[in-house]
Design a protein that fits this description.
Layout: H1 3-8, H2 22-31, E1 45-50, H3 57-70, E2 74-79, H4 85-94, E3 122-127, E4 130-131, E5 136-137, H5 142-162
Parallel strand pairs: 1-2
Antiparallel strand pairs: 1-3, 3-4, 3-5
Helix pairs in contact: 2-5, 3-5
Length: 163
């Protein structure tokens, strides 16, 4: 289908439409097996990896965190495992984010989508003990950030119903 024809068949902005890639997401979620439910399983969670080596990551973090929390997500974070602790402490102090000083280094070996570790922040939406297989990369305007959070959560909820 030509590009113009494809665009002409697109769903109107704001309307919900079936997403062809959702089956791939559901297959990846199912392949992960049954996750043990934790006490927070009923709430949406956002797991975030931050790095001071990405210029906007720490600067934009309070806004992204606040938006996610306002949208109903429990937010949890870890730091880029390649950043030495002394560098992390200096960066969060310089950014006025001392509450991040205690964040542990991420152990990413089992997290989906971590084969590419060159862009931070990297965030995963979790629901009922399952992580969406596609991380959200980088900082973005509020509307785009919230749209991605909602889409990832909707994918997980839909996949849960399909099991």
């Amino acid at each position: 289908m030509a590009g113009a024809a494809l665009l002409a068949t697109a769903t109107a902005p704001g309307a919900s439409a079936p997403w062809p890639a959702r089956e791939a997401v559901c297959a990846a979620v199912r392949a992960g097996g049954d996750a043990a439910l934790d006490p927070q399983a009923a709430r949406a969670q956002l797991l975030v990896v931050l790095s001071p080596r990405m210029v906007y990551a720490l600067r934009e973090w309070p806004r992204l965190r606040d938006q996610a929390q306002a949208a109903g997500f429990d937010v949890h974070g870890v730091r880029d495992p390649r950043v030495p602790e002394a560098e992390w402490h200096a960066a969060v102090a310089a950014a006025g984010l001392s509450e991040l000083a205690a964040w542990p280094a991420a152990r990413l070996t089992d997290w989906p989508g971590t084969q590419v570790r060159n862009h931070w922040p990297m965030a995963w939406v979790r629901w009922q003990g399952r992580s969406h297989p596609w991380p959200i990369l980088g900082v973005m305007p509020d509307a785009a950030w919230l749209q991605l959070l909602r889409e990832r959560l909707e994918d997980l909820q839909t996949c849960s119903v399909q099991r």
